[in-house]
Amino acid sequence: QVQLVESGGGLVQAGGSLRLSCAASGRTSYVMGWFRQAPGKEREFVAAIRWSGGSKHYADSVKGRFTISEDNAKNTKHLQMNSLKPEDTAVYYCAAATRTFYAINSYASATLYDYWGQGTQVTVSS
């Protein structure tokens, strides 16, 4: 079992920054992913990282603007979002996948994830 608690969403102007956090408890061997869902749209992959802090994978739409970092002492991953755009507006979810033997780019698929956080709203105004 993995419990995920997200924090850090909010309202920001275009070009600004926000940092999302996802605190995990329970099992410590998994891949953590970030997804987002805008109103009327399907859930979209954002980024993923192995819990060991190794390989990472980003969606093309956020590459160069978003960065995953980690605080292992607190079992927390952060999603640093810079140069935010109005099209980044969505509910952001972190998720944990316990099947960790796939290549990191495979974790763009939401079907690989077993546990999901509650979601946090990010709104970027123009």
What would a concise description of this structure say?
With 126 residues, the chain is mainly beta. The chain has strands at residues 2-7, 10-13, 18-26, 31-37, 44-50, 56-58, 66-71, 76-81, 90-97, 115-116, 120-125.
Topology record:
Blueprint: E1 2-7, E2 10-13, E3 18-26, E4 31-37, E5 44-50, E6 56-58, E7 66-71, E8 76-81, E9 90-97, E10 115-116, E11 120-125
Parallel strand pairs: 2-11
Antiparallel strand pairs: 1-3, 3-8, 4-5, 4-9, 5-6, 7-8, 9-10, 9-11
What characteristics describe this protein?
126 residues; mainly beta; seven-stranded mixed beta sheet; 11 strands
Can you describe what's shown?
With about 130 residues, the chain is mainly beta. It is about 0% helix and about 50% strand. The protein contains no helices and eleven strands. It has strands at about 1-5, 10-15, 20-25, 30-35, 45-50, 55-60, 65-70, 75-80, 90-95, 115, 120-125. The strands form two sheets. Strands 2, 4, 5, 6, 9, 10 and 11 form a seven-stranded mixed β-sheet that branches. It is globular and about 40 Å long.
How many individual helices?
Answer: 0
Unreliable spans? none
SSE order, as H and E?
Answer: EEEEEEEEEEE
What is the residue-mean pLDDT, rounded to a whole number?
Answer: 93
Instruction: Count the E strands.
Output: 11
Give the termini distance in whole angstroms.
40 Å
Radius of gyration: 13 Å
Judged by helices, strands and strand pairing, the structural class is mainly beta
Q: Fraction of residues in helices?
A: under 10%
Shape: globular
Report strand %: over 45%
Q: How would you characterize the largest beta sheet?
A: 7 strands, mixed
